[in-house]
């Protein structure tokens, strides 16, 4: 019996893999299991959709039915995986079990919520799925003052986007925006462009309570912010609930062929850890999906990353980066009235770059060493 390939997850990783595999094999059954409706949408646009007035429906590129018909795959939408029998190679659902020949974890990550107290934690918003976005957009429409928790990549993009229309306060435990991605001078320039945002650095939110129709956020430094909406963008954590029998650390540990510790089981995307790193960006996920498709089609293919570019969606001060941009680095910075270019070096070798303003960083990508995954973002 030709057992199907079963993919758990219908995000960018799952659908990119299904499309890549179908280009190589048009006959083997493929089953995609997803907890949501299976609609295909560009997840990076969630962080700047509100400012552009985009509805959730406008972000949808293709329905699950459309994808199933196009790729000739079965999509089990609104379906929860209860467990996996790795010995019998069965995926257990509520009403039945699906046998698999090869199983792929593409389950993604979930929003990280820092420890907080209060009676209004259930009213805090996250922004990790299209369903999250529906609630987020509806609530923001009726808000005047929004608190964003987190000054990393997503938190910064969200605050930038909301500030086009609403008053925004941002709280972060670090001392500046994008502290793990860019040198201080870039953070300073970006914060200057976001002068309408009220920043609270080196502190955290300890409690959120509903008081007189508003949300009261109590900070660790004693400050109290009264807002209408709280958006938590403090980061993501790989989803590992179904991976208890697999080797896991931060994510599901895989080798360079994206194989897990169980035979015939693979993982890619936001839930996978390769060479000690989780790479939650579109380009490494796409490269992983294309390599895994080759492997599943019968041609074992290791994934190779090299340096990869990342664009921060902050139009007031666009930022591009690639390679190694955090850790013990020396920075060579060139700045003019149009922006800046910062080159990161180690022992005299350029290992990364960050550009801001109108400076073009992508031209520097080819100058970076093409080492292992640890050398890239």
Detailed description of the structure:
The chain is α/β, with parallel strands linked by helices and 377 residues long. The chain contains seven helices and 24 strands. The strands form seven sheets. It has a five-stranded parallel sheet, covered by helices on one side. The radius of gyration is 22 Å and the shape is globular. The C terminus is likely disordered.
SSE layout:
Elements: E1 5-8, H1 12-24, E2 30-33, H2 56-59, H3 64-71, E3 74-76, E4 83-85, E5 90-92, E6 97-99, E7 102-105, E8 109-111, H4 130-141, E9 145-149, H5 153-162, E10 167-172, H6 184-193, E11 197-201, E12 205-211, E13 214-219, E14 224-227, E15 229-232, E16 236-238, E17 252-254, E18 265-267, E19 272-274, H7 282-296, E20 309-312, E21 319-323, E22 330-336, E23 339-346, E24 349-357
Parallel strand pairs: 1-2, 1-7, 2-3, 7-18, 9-10, 9-15, 10-11, 17-19
Antiparallel strand pairs: 4-5, 5-6, 8-16, 12-13, 13-14, 20-21, 21-24, 22-23, 23-24
Helix pairs in contact: 1-7
Assess the beta-strand content as a share of residues. Answer: 25-35%
Mean pLDDT: 95
Largest sheet: 5 strands, parallel
Strand segment count:
24
Determine Rg (CA atoms, Å).
22 Å
Short description:
The protein has helices at 12-24, 56-59, 64-71, 130-141, 153-162, 184-193, 282-296; strands spanning 5-8, 30-33, 74-76, 83-85, 90-92, 97-99, 102-105, 109-111, 145-149, 167-172, 197-201, 205-211, 214-219, 224-227, 229-232, 236-238, 252-254, 265-267, 272-274, 309-312, 319-323, 330-336, 339-346, 349-357.
């Amino acid at each position: 019996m030709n057992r199907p390939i079963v993919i758990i997850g219908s995000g960018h990783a799952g659908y990119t893999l299904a499309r890549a595999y179908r280009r190589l094999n048009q006959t083997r059954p493929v089953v995609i299991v997803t907890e949501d409706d299976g609609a295909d949408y560009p997840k990076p646009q969630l962080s700047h959709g509100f400012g552009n007035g985009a509805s959730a429906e406008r972000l949808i590129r293709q329905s699950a039915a459309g994808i199933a018909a196009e790729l000739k795959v079965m999509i089990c939408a609104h379906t929860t995986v209860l467990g996996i029998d790795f010995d019998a190679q069965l995926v257990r659902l509520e009403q039945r079990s699906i046998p698999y020949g090869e199983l792929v974890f593409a389950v993604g990550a979930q929003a990280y919520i820092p420890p907080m107290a209060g009676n209004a934690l259930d009213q805090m918003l996250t922004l990790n799925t299209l369903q999250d976005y529906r609630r987020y957009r509806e609530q923001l429409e009726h808000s005047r003052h929004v608190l964003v928790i987190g000054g990393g990549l997503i938190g910064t993009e969200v605050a930038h986007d909301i500030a086009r229309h609403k008053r925004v306060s941002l709280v972060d435990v670090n001392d500046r925006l994008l502290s793990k991605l860019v040198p201080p001078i870039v953070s300073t320039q970006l914060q200057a462009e976001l002068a309408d945002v009220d920043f609270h650095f080196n502190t955290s939110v300890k409690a959120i309570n509903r008081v007189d129709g508003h949300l009261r956020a109590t900070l660790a430094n004693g400050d109290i912010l009264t807002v209408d909406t709280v958006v938590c963008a403090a980061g993501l954590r790989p989803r590992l609930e179904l991976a208890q029998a697999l080797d896991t650390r931060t994510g599901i540990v895989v080798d360079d062929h994206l194989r897990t510790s169980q035979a015939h089981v693979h993982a890619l995307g936001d839930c996978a850890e390769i060479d000690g790193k989780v790479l939650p960006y579109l380009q490494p996920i796409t490269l992983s999906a294309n390599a895994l498709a080759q492997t599943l089609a019968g041609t074992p293919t290791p994934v190779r990353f090299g340096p990869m570019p990342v664009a921060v969606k902050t139009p007031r001060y666009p930022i591009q980066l690639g390679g190694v941009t955090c850790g013990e680095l020396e920075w060579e910075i060139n700045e003019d009235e149009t922006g800046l270019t910062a080159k990161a070096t180690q022992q005299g070798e350029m290992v990364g770059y960050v550009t801001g303003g109108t400076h073009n960083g992508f031209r520097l990508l080819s100058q970076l060493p093409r080492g292992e995954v640890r050398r890239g973002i």
